[in-house]
């Protein structure tokens, strides 16, 4: 009982500190949409790097990934640590830099605004926002599910799953309603530094207890010999490449990440951050996933539905340190969730509420107040529904995360074509965005196949295509549809090809 109180006290204290940072940021935040959603486009190198980093630190990172390394070997490091560190850094420059230039000139806050303006289409703006909110839902649910599992594992079941999941949901609602991008970015920076430090201390503590990295690896080789060589685990080259590309492409289109492309203070900030990104990724993913893999050789028993990191730390570190790491992991989940809900609220108000109610993009005081209310109500409803879904979702953290990543990934190549190819047409964008989403959705939502059967359509789709996942095939489908339809259709009269002309705005 005393241990449980100590553990929950540490987790609670950390959440209070994060909330206090948000309160300070709230006092310094202007009551404008640009400042609330993008911190007035003033983020510097350290804050932009760590807010992007911390926003991606999620239950998928600290529980899902190590769990997979524990069950199938550490080759997952190739997916997240190496390939995604590099692929996303390249996309950050290729897409993020161009978005920053365009956003700086035209004042865009969301991806939907940018695309809707370029193609003169309110409907495209709504479609992009709707697709993004659909895939945001399972990823927010992932954080709540991870929080519930973390609390159960930390307290050995003394605190039930719904308390952990419900606690982080309530915190998210309070925090997002209180602070905007500035508070989120500041808190993310502290959380990223805190978690990065803790994970290395955890590695040092565990390895010192078992006799060093050499001994831990020898035990792993004796227990799971297939885990210590490339190609010996459960992974295939197609799976590794498919997953790495889907995750990197998906991250690029995450609303909370995509909006950070608009928030950089200068060109130099963007260039420094994407150059440092692969280093930061390796510093986190290598120790986290190796802890999961080493645990397989140390005889760690993971409770059903539990996670390997809390079980490993519970075996080799004091109760207070385990609680501190779990607090850090929950901070990672919160840093993802608060950014998701903040970005989701901007998509809801600017890309759905405004067009569907006939509101103008030009704001006045009464419009701002009305939209603020819509955004806060939307956050409460969205977070509550995802919490309820987390209580009943049967999928693992990895499955939920991969589903959301691949859903967002379908947007990447149509957006890239829109940014760089003047020949892209509105019809081509519709075909690429909607076509790839339908293709991928038929593979991951069984209900769609069931509905097809009810109307006489026999939709029998394979789980993989010569080893390649439906997510990666869907990305190619989106590319081909966008190009093919654009080649055979003429631009609409309302399309604005000068929107992405960015000469004269590249200065720092």
TrEMBL record:
It comes from the Archaea. Keywords: Cell membrane, Ion transport, Membrane, Sodium, Sodium transport, Symport, Transmembrane, Transmembrane helix, Transport. One of its GO terms (biological process) is sodium ion transport. CDD domains: SLC5sbd. GO terms for molecular function: symporter activity. One of its GO terms (cellular component) is plasma membrane. Belongs to the sodium:solute symporter (SSF) (TC 2.A.21) family. This is Sodium:solute symporter. It comes from Haloarcula rubripromontorii.
């Amino acid at each position: 009982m005393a241990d449980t109180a100590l553990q929950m006290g540490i987790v609670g204290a950390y959440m209070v500190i994060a909330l206090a940072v948000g309160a300070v940021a709230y006092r310094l935040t202007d009551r404008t949409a640009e400042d609330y959603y993008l911190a007035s486009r003033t983020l510097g190198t350290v804050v932009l790097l760590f807010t992007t980093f911390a926003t991606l630190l999620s239950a998928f990172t600290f529980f899902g990934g190590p769990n997979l390394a524990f069950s199938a070997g550490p080759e997952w490091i190739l997916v997240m640590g190496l390939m995604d560190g590099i692929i996303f850094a390249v996309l950050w420059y290729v897409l993020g830099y161009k978005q920053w230039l365009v956003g700086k000139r035209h004042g865009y806050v969301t991806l939907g605004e940018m695309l809707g303006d370029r193609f003169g289409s309110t409907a495209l703006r709504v479609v992009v926002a709707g697709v993004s909110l659909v895939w945001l839902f399972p990823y927010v649910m992932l954080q709540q599910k991870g929080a519930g599992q973390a609390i159960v594992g930390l307290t050995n079941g003394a605190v039930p799953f719904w308390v952990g999941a419900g606690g982080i949901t309530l915190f998210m609602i309070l925090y997002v309603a209180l602070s905007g991008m500035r508070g989120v970015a500041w808190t993310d920076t502290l959380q990223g530094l805190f978690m990065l430090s803790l994970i290395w201390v955890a590695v040092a503590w565990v390895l010192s207890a078992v006799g060093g990295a050499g001994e831990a690896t020898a035990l792993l080789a004796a227990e799971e010999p297939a885990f210590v060589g490339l190609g010996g685990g459960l992974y295939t080259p197609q799976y590794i490449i498919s997953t790495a590309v889907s995750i990197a492409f998906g991250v690029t289109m995450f609303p909370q990440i995509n909006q950070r492309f608009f928030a950089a203070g200068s060109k130099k900030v963007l260039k420094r951050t994407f150059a440092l990104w692969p280093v930061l990724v390796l510093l986190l993913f290598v120790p986290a996933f190796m802890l999961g893999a080493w645990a397989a050789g140390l005889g760690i028993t993971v409770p059903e539905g539990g996670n390997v990191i809390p079980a490993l730390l519970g075996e080799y570190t004091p109760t207070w340190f385990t609680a501190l790491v779990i607090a850090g992991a929950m901070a990672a989940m919160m840093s993802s969730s608060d950014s998701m809900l903040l970005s989701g609220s901007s998509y809801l108000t600017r890309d759905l509420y405004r067009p569907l109610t006939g509101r103008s993009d030009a704001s006045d005081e009464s419009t701002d107040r009305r939209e603020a209310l819509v955004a806060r109500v939307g956050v409460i409803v969205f977070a509550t529904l995802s919490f309820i879904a987390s209580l009943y979702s049967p999928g693992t953290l990895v499955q939920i995360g991969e589903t959301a990543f691949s859903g967002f990934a379908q947007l990447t190549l149509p957006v890239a074509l829109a940014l760089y190819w003047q020949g892209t047409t509105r019809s081509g964008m519709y075909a690429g965005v909607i076509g790839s989403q339908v293709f991928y959705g038929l593979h991951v939502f069984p209900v769609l196949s069931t509905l097809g059967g009810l109307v006489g359509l026999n939709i029998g789709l394979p789980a993989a295509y010569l080893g390649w996942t439906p997510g990666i095939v869907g990305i190619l489908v989106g590319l081909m549809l966008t190009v093919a339809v654009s080649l055979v259709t003429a631009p609409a009269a309302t399309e604005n090809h000068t929107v992405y002309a960015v000469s004269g705005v590249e200065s720092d």
